[in-house]
């Protein structure tokens, strides 16, 4: 596996972890459709210079390509709806754990059923350690069933299932278009969809009244977390396969908790460190087989 690409993927996952507490800061300021629209629009515009600089084509060649980007736009719009709805009520650290530890498991399960791919014992063990690491970080022995079923956490659970389908969708487009081109269309379609629901909302233009902290959050969620992080992830899904790329999401829970501590003063405890170590072990176990059999070209 190319070391530089591996480091980029790890940085992308860390940027996702930091996005949880940053998104929490602005989640309740305006209705979710308004917030998602401005995030999508800013991201869409930020991708254009990358397409131009790399001279990537934006033309879609087949009807299947049009269908895939449309589905991707719808799925990613749903994910962002659930993401911000969950953050309005739930904790960013808990959300980061629930979503990112369940996502690889759901993705592997879907791949196993749909694509008939086999899962090795080593990968199963890795998934187990990743899920266990998430539970340790969350300290489930202190949490009641009622707490896990609170509306915020239910939205986080929906996030994990929706993202798994997005991973598979982005993988399908890998042979026919660049992941950056895919991102361009996904964010464009998402912007249009959200605009249909919020253009006449009284708070649509209210975002311009907010201070620098709001726009810094939008900048981070747009350029750092989405344009950089998500595009790298989409690229990884095309190169490694969605089930392998999704395993790197196990890196996110620890970074989400650490950044929540730094940004929102959430308390970090020993179980977080232990759970994070288990999640990193999961990444190694799931990818070790892949590295031996299908090394990435240098």
From TrEMBL:
Superkingdom assignment: Bacteria
Subcellular location: Cell membrane
Coiled coil: none
Principal subcellular localization: membrane
Keyword Cell membrane: yes
Keywords associated with the record: Cell membrane, Membrane, Transmembrane, Transmembrane helix
Membrane topology type: Multi-pass membrane protein
Residue ranges crossing the lipid bilayer per the database entry: 35-54, 66-87, 93-112, 124-141, 147-168, 180-200, 212-237, 244-262, 268-286
A Pfam short name: EamA
GO cellular component terms given for this protein: plasma membrane
Ranges of residues in domain EamA: 6-138, 151-287
Protein name in the entry: DMT family transporter
Organism: Leptospira kemamanensis
Lineage, broadest ranks: Bacteria, Pseudomonadati, Spirochaetota, Spirochaetia, Leptospirales
């Amino acid at each position: 596996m190319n070391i530089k690409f591996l480091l980029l993927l790890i940085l992308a996952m860390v940027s996702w972890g930091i996005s949880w507490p940053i998104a929490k800061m602005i989640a309740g300021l305006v209705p979710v459709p308004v917030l998602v629209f401005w995030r999508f629009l800013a991201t869409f515009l930020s991708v254009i210079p990358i397409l131009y600089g790399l001279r990537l084509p934006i033309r879609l060649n087949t009807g299947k390509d049009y269908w895939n980007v449309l589905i991707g736009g719808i799925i990613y719009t749903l994910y962002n709806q659930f993401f911000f709805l969950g953050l309005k009520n739930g904790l960013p650290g808990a959300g980061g754990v629930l979503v990112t530890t369940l996502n690889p498991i759901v993705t592997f399960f879907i791949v196993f059923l749909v694509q008939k791919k086999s899962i090795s014992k080593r990968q199963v063990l890795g998934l187990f350690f990743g899920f266990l690491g998430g539970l340790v970080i969350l300290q489930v022995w202190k949490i009641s069933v009622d707490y896990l079923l609170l509306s915020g956490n239910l939205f986080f659970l929906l996030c994990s299932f929706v993202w798994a389908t997005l991973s598979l969708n982005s993988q399908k487009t890998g042979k026919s278009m660049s992941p950056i081109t895919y991102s361009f269309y996904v964010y464009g379609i998402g912007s249009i969809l959200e605009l249909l629901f919020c253009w006449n909302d009284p708070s649509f233009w209210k975002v311009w009244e907010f201070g620098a902290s709001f726009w810094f959050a939008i900048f981070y969620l747009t350029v750092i977390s989405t344009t950089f992080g998500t595009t790298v992830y989409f690229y990884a899904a095309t190169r490694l396969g969605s089930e392998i790329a999704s395993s790197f999401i196990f890196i996110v829970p620890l970074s989400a908790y650490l950044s929540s501590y730094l940004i929102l003063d959430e308390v970090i405890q020993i179980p977080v460190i232990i759970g994070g170590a288990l999640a990193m072990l999961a990444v190694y176990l799931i990818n070790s087989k892949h590295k031996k059999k299908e090394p990435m070209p240098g």
